[in-house]
Amino acid sequence: MLYFTFAFLVLACVYLGNAALSIFAGILFAYFLKPSTTFVTRRVGTMPLQVGIVLLGATISLPYALAVSSVYLPWISLFVIVSFVAGLMLGKLLGIHHRVAFLLSSGAAICGGTAMAAVAPIIKAKPQELLIAMTIVFLLNAAAIIIFPIMGNYLAMNNFEFGAWSALAIHDTSSVIGSALIFSNESAQVAATLKLGRTIWLIPLILIANWMFNKQTQVTKFPRFILFFILAIICNTLFAFNEQAINLLQISSQAFLLFGLFCIGSQFDSIELKSISGKPLILALMLWAIVIPSAYFLVKYF
């Protein structure tokens, strides 16, 4: 029954092609059927999502990626720095423990759960602290998949603008791609390319965390899928894939992305909701309240 329901829901999500539906189907699957920690969706984790992002990279040419990045890369860097510093300052004003503030600031500025998981061992964050930060970002990103496309349509944004806005304002790569995918395939391409610029900031973040806390010198692994994403773009440029190949890659990419979002949703645990305290949630919402309109203004008028 468990595997039949799993297969049915995944096939339905892929067929319908809705990213928001995929992540919430995963949440409902976990809530009602309570799969074990060894179930396939929990074992594979974010791997299908990473495969989908790499395949998406194979639909993007290097000149296109450079053209998109050249416009926004300086602004992305500014956004990362300002968001990170603002998060630390607001955390101090709100009286939030410095480790929790550092985790939330890292997640909001760079790439959500990936950034927090990368710095947690360096700053020696306690499991409960990481759990609180992860849960807050997970909830905000789940909401973003629903809210951002609605807002984008209401604000009459074009595909490029929405992809850039998603890449700047949403935390996790999964939700950036999921939100943009609902809007259009072109938006997903733009979002994936620009999100890469934010993710690369993981390297200086790790160095900063080591310098600030000076408690652990262990090197944290840089996400390998980012390197494969870049390699896929280079392959597209070198081999000049035809339209039929691009269409096949887009279909495959979307299928993996939707499956990956379902897997992420299936890792939801309602017990985690009880661990959320008020101040860290307020910090995350305050950061978002600053970033969302700022990113929109930048994308729309610069």
Tags for this model:
0% strand; 15 helices; single chain; 81% helix; globular; 302 residues; mainly alpha
Description:
- The chain is mainly alpha-helical and 302 residues long.
- It has one domain (2-301).
- It is globular and about 55 Å long.
- The N and C termini lie far apart (53 Å).
- Helix content is 81%, strand content 0%.
- Mean pLDDT is 83; it is low at 215-219.
- The relative contact order is 0.20.
Task: Identify low-pLDDT runs.
Answer: 215-219
Q: State the major sheet.
A: none
* Overall helicity: over 70%
Measured on Cα atoms, how large is the radius of gyration?
Answer: 19 Å
Distance between the termini: 53 Å
Summed up:
The chain has 302 residues and is mostly helical. Helices cover 81% and strands 0% of the residues.
Strand and helix map with partners:
Blueprint: H1 2-16, H2 19-33, H3 40-44, H4 47-57, H5 62-94, H6 98-111, H7 113-123, H8 127-154, H9 159-169, H10 173-183, H11 185-199, H12 202-213, H13 224-239, H14 243-266, H15 278-301
Helix pairs in contact: 1-2, 2-14, 4-13, 4-14, 5-6, 5-11, 5-15, 6-7, 6-8, 6-15, 7-8, 7-12, 8-10, 8-15, 9-10, 9-11, 9-15, 10-11, 10-14
